[in-house]
Amino acid sequence: MSADLRHIDTWLFDLDNTLYPAESLHMRLVEERMTDFVERLTGFPRDDARTLQKKYYHAHGTTLAGLMANHDVDPADFLDFVHDVPMDRLVPDPALKAALKRLPGRRLIFTNGSASHAERVLQTLELDHLFEATFHIEAADFLPKPAPETFAKMIADHAVHAPGAAFFEDSEKNLAPAHDLHMTTILVGAHAAASTAPFVNHRTDDLAGFLAGARVQDAAA
């Protein structure tokens, strides 16, 4: 049965592994660069550097937040380094482009990635013209999702009415604060069907198909 999203006028999308499939392994390139950064910073063997990287990710929400808290890392240096990867694993999806275009109201990106990374990814996917703005990690003062303060800042910066917003994410934990704010939450990805989280309203492994089939207000111009 198609999702009833006729009450939605603001569409919030995570970027990585949401607007393109995780199976592209694009984020693996970024994660390898993160390990490179931690390895160079600490002098640890690579396996130990990767373990520390993952520890910071789970404890702080992003590897960057952990590095800033524990190593006084300059966030700009980190972001420039880890996002310096080729875009050749990302392929435009005409079906997703058409499904996004039909959505009424505003479309925004809400990502823990950097502004420049979001710009490169959206341009590569040929979706940049479909989004009004990007709320990125710099705009969040480097405090990542799922921090409630970051949701509050995104809402304030872009005048989002939370009950009229839908949030699409591949990370289950990032949907919990959205649900608390009375947003409609959609978990995206091959793992979505297995989720039993009560704060997830919809689950899909086919974002384009989900959007194309959803009941929405009058189609966007």
From TrEMBL:
Record's keyword annotation contains Hydrolase: yes
InterPro entries, A to Z: HAD-like_sf, HAD-SF_hydro_IA, HAD_sf, Pyr-5-nucltdase
Any one GO molecular function term: hydrolase activity
The keyword Hydrolase belongs to this UniProt entry's keyword annotation: yes
Alphabetical keyword list: Hydrolase
Pfam families: Hydrolase (PF00702)
NCBIfam families for this protein: HAD-SF-IA-v3, Pyr-5-nucltdase
Gene3D superfamilies in the record: 1.10.150.450, HAD superfamily/HAD-like
Lineage start: Bacteria, Pseudomonadati, Pseudomonadota, Alphaproteobacteria, Caulobacterales
Protein name per its UniProtKB record: Hydrolase of the HAD superfamily
